[in-house]
Amino acid sequence: MTRTRTFVIPYVLSLIVVIALLVVWVVYAIQSGGRLHEFAGRLGVTSPRSPGIILAVGCALFALLIVFVTHQLARSLAEYRYARKQEEFVSGITHEMKSPLAAIRLHAETLEQDEVDEDRRRSVSYILSEAQRLGRLIDNVLESSRLVARRQVFEPYEVEVVPFCGLFFAEIRPTVEGRNLVFVTEVDTNASILTTDEALRRVLTNLIENAVRYSASGGRVGCRVFERGEKVIFQVTDEGIGIPKSELNLIFDRFYRIGRDTHAEHGTGLGLFIVSQLVEQMHGSVCARSRDSSPGTTFEVEVPVMEKMV
Known about the structure:
The protein has 7 helices and 7 strands. It has 310 residues and is of the alpha+beta class. The protein has 3 domains: 2-84; 97-148; 157-304, Histidine kinase-like ATPase, C-terminal domain (Heat Shock Protein 90, 2-Layer Sandwich), CATH 3.30.565. Strands 2-4-5-7-6 form a 5-stranded mixed sheet, with helices on one face. The chain has a two-stranded antiparallel sheet with strand order 1-3. A hairpin with a 6-residue loop joins β6 and β7 (297-304). The chain starts with a helix and ends in a 6-residue tail after the last strand. The mean pLDDT is 77.
């Protein structure tokens, strides 16, 4: 409802302004008949009805402008409602996919525990891996739909950076190092920020998994946390393929994928969008830096330091 109201307000204000100008024009034309007659005379029109004609022409132009603004409002509202219906359909169908996916994973895990030959075990392991990847995709689609609809507005609280990072890095390290990558972490702050554990975990997980996806075996992925002024900076770096400068301002758009992405594990274009939306709710900002002349990308998330109550 809030987004709809924000969307409609500019058109409503435009209509009010045009109608107000129309009223002013009518009042002015009625009170200044002599001036309009004189103006018509300068144009070579000597008819005694010339002031009325000028008034009618002005009213017609304002009426056309009102019709145009009203048409644009109706058209934009129709497009907005259609997009909302599409969003609700995607969210609904994606949510329905979670149940059969959970069943597939459950049966695959059961088979994995049985004594089977190596080929079957490899097949079961592949099924589980792909089911987990599909599960992450479904979660990302649902998360992005909630963020677009502004149904995912979390209630922030104080999160101490040091203990959070200690637990989080311990959790994600096996994932990074399991891809034969070097994972380097550094925390140089004692600050707290206003967010939630889940939101911050989601932001860092998406950034680090993105770095892992585009890093070659034996590469290095780093996550450095430090303070810069009144901000806490979460900096994630990799030595991957990099991002063209022309695309740096586009990568946080929903479903956007890098044009020269030829990596085997294609992204969905949702991870960085989710990052940008969650960071916005933290009243922070996120940016990416990359150079065409050298590999690697650096992502920086800035979040305000939480002021301590005295």
